[in-house]
Design a protein that fits this description.
The protein is built from 21 helices and 31 strands. α12 packs across α15 and α12 packs antiparallel against α18.
């Protein structure tokens, strides 16, 4: 009976517990239903979402790269990080911060020495003090009954002035205090994409720049011209807090930008920049441009635009190659000759009286460069006039053929293609980048009674360097004028999306006979004319010098000197244009611009043209036996045996030897080693030298390549283990 009563009591208690659990389950279900189906539930879901999810964050796409023709990087995108401290991080503790702030500040000062350790410490502790002040303000508001949400001021403090790379970010995350989780250290790294140019300023103006805020895209050059392709398409992500940690969840991935392969050759570009810069420094010119173009393809292999800065240095500035709108001067005489010859107005042997170099037409004097000498040159043929760059010959030719119909002369220029409006890879504004050649009866351009003769020798018209380059390249290319270009290929995700070919401006600039005659005249300029100084010992050149006064404010001041030509003349490979603005000294298209042309042409030719094996003579001074480095004898002996060279071992047993060649054999001399003295590693390779020094207990700082030519600790001096020794190799 007693057992039955106990059993009933136990079952009663059990039933009571089950009833409570069921009641609790009902309440849970009721509460869940309330949350799911009522307005209150919707409110809490929205709050939870705000607290745990941050939506619609932009994923920045990787901006496309810009390459040279052979795949060297001219511009690329790399992530940089702005470093802040969040002093309201949940887990940040003052006592821990105070404990490590000195070590953290010291590490920062060592890595980023633009601030001292004390300045870093003050910055960090000031950030914490601002948090304490904010907390006091919030507390005071609560005591006053002000229950509104308080906006926290100065939550993030920027610690490093400059943005840093990912490698630097990894390193600073090992610093004291910052080696904790971000919610305790407060370390915040804000990522942004930045543009990097591995070749520095090489072709800087042509490649162009981007805004610091990469979202704004390109600001100049190729970066601006092809910004829509380079920039890519942004993606979308949201941040979600999971187990107390924020994680990124990608909704739509970003699409990377297209890559651009340019026609630029880094070697030719460097040659061109150095050659132009040297002449600009020598002549103290205000600016200069140099362009080198591949004759057949139309690809620009090098393009330089240098302006003088206020401190006297030269740097890439305005896109002068495309936009410098000035009267071209005597390089335009080849245009005049081509039009007149093609129209049958003149033959190369027709002569014109030039006298002492002065000719008056409609009250205005035409002068030849030799007029001050008082020398009477009598009559000059067209060919002779081109060679010595006679203004009078050119003006008399156009007056003979076009005085009564000047429009016919300009129509001849149109026939060549020099008045055609073209767009370029470098974005320009207004009339820049187009030629500005007057036409009779055109109300927008005043045509005077003297315009025609002055136009014949490169005045009363504006033609940018790129047009003159295109014209001379057309002569070199058999009369086929093609537009110079820089962007040759577009890649998407490493695959070719589009190939660019040269745009043909004119398939036939003139008659074949005319082309041959103009080509012969351009050869004469170099062989016996104003361009004699440009002649090369390695190949023939055809081209024309130019010296033009610069119009400014209704008068002339300073000169623009230029040279344009192609080489080798018999089988042209490259066309080059060089122009210098306002050089000091006696202005000379040949002696100034022409010498830059010559330097670029010769260095390019010697690097790009391969000689036939038959043309390579044996160097009689060639050393027939290889020079062996000092070092480990076993390795040296193995090498000599493999090459079948006789060798004599050291007189005494030694692992380390000095090598020398004499009397038809290699001889080795033992290197004496003493554990208490600094060893002699002169003449050794890097591997042997570093091994021997580190084995002796020294730390090695190595520079250069080749074999050791100097060591900072003298051989034989007392050795202090742990010391650093610097060795230089050549």
């Amino acid at each position: 009976m007693k057992k039955q009563n106990n059993k009933r009591a136990i079952l009663g208690r059990y039933g009571f517990i089950v009833a409570l659990l069921m009641l609790f389950a009902v309440m849970v279900v009721f509460s869940a239903g309330k949350i799911v189906f009522t307005a209150e539930g919707k409110k809490w879901r929205e709050i939870g979402k705000k607290e745990t999810v941050i939506r619609d964050r932009v994923i920045l796409p990787k901006r496309g790269n810009i390459y040279t023709y052979d795949g060297k990087l001219l511009a690329t995108t790399e992530p940089l990080y702005s470093i802040y401290m969040d002093f309201w991080a949940n887990g940040m503790q003052k006592d821990t911060l105070v404990k490590y702030v000195d070590e953290l500040s010291g590490a920062l000062a060592k890595k980023f020495p633009d601030k001292t350790a004390s300045r870093y410490k003050n910055m960090i502790m000031n950030g914490w003090e601002m948090r304490e002040k904010e907390e006091n303000r919030i507390r005071e508001n609560k005591e006053k009954g002000i229950d509104k949400k308080v906006q926290i001021r100065s939550r993030h403090v920027k610690i490093l002035h400059n943005d840093i790379s990912y490698l630097d970010l990894k390193e600073i995350r090992t610093f004291p205090f910052w080696n904790q989780r971000s919610n305790r250290s407060g370390l915040v790294a804000e990522e942004r994409n930045a543009r990097k140019k591995p070749f520095g300023n090489l072709a800087g103006r042509t490649v162009g720049n981007v805004y610091r805020d990469l979202d704004r895209g390109g600001s100049s050059g190729l970066e601006l011209k092809y910004d829509s392709l380079l920039r890519g398409v942004p993606g979308v992500k949201f941040r979600q807090k999971i187990q107390g940690r924020w994680m990124d969840v990608v909704e739509k991935p970003a699409e990377e930008g297209w890559d651009i392969v340019t026609s630029i050759d880094a070697v030719i570009q460097d040659i061109s920049e150095r050659s132009l810069r040297e002449k600009l420094i020598e002549t103290e010119a205000e600016s200069g441009t140099a362009i080198i173009m591949e004759v057949k393809s139309g690809e620009i292999k090098g393009i330089v635009n240098l302006d003088r800065l206020s401190n006297g240095d030269y740097a890439e500035g305005n896109p002068n190659a495309f936009s410098y709108m000035n009267e071209p001067g005597s390089t335009f005489k080849a245009v005049t000759a081509m039009v007149a010859l093609d129209d049958g107005v003149v033959a190369p042997t027709d002569s014109f009286y030039v006298g002492t170099g002065l000719f008056q037409y409609n009250g205005r004097l035409v002068r030849d460069h030799y007029w001050r000498r008082g020398q009477n040159r009598g009559h000059l043929t067209l060919a002779e006039g081109m060679a010595i760059s006679s203004n009078i010959v050119m003006s008399k030719i156009v007056l003979k053929g076009y005085e009564n119909n000047p429009a016919r002369f300009v129509e001849g220029i149109d026939r060549i293609g020099l008045r055609k409006r073209l767009t370029w890879d470098v974005p320009l504004g207004g009339i820049e980048g187009t030629s500005s050649i007057r036409f009779p009866n055109d109300k927008s351009n005043y045509w005077s009674k003297t315009t025609l003769p002055w136009m014949s020798f490169g005045y009363e018209t504006k033609v940018p360097p790129i047009y003159m380059l295109m014209f001379y390249n057309g002569i070199a290319n058999g009369g086929r004028m093609i537009k110079p270009f820089i962007a040759r290929q577009f890649l998407y995700k490493g695959k070719v999306a589009e190939n660019i070919e040269a745009e043909v401006v004119n398939h036939k600039m003139c008659k074949k006979r005319t082309l041959e005659q103009v080509h012969r005249m351009l050869l004469d300029v170099i062989e016996d004319g104003t361009g004699k100084v440009v002649a090369s010992d390695y190949f023939s050149i055809a081209g024309k010098t130019g010296t033009a006064q610069i119009a400014s404010g209704g008068s002339y001041g300073g000169y623009f000197v230029s040279f344009c030509g192609y080489f080798p003349a018999e089988a042209p490979m490259y066309t080059i244009y060089v122009g210098l603005r306002k050089p000091k000294g006696d202005p000379s298209g040949g002696g100034m611009a022409g010498m830059v042309f010559k330097n670029i042409a010769e260095q390019t030719y010697l690097r790009k043209v391969r000689l036939n094996v038959e043309d390579c003579r044996i160097d009689s001074a060639l050393h027939k036996h290889p020079t062996l480095k000092n070092g480990n004898w076993d390795r040296g002996k193995s090498l000599l045996n493999a090459l079948n060279f006789p060798a004599k071992g050291p007189a005494e047993a030694s692992d380390w030897v000095k090598m020398k060649y004499e009397n038809t054999a290699y001889h080795s001399e033992a290197v004496a080693l003493n554990s208490a003295l600094v060893p002699d590693v002169h003449g050794m390779g890097a591997r042997d030298a570093v091994y021997l020094l580190e084995k002796s207990g020294l730390k090695v700082n190595l520079t250069g390549a080749g074999k050791v030519v100097s060591q900072s600790l003298s051989p034989g001096q007392k050795l202090v283990k742990g010391s650093t020794i610097a060795i230089t190799m050549k």
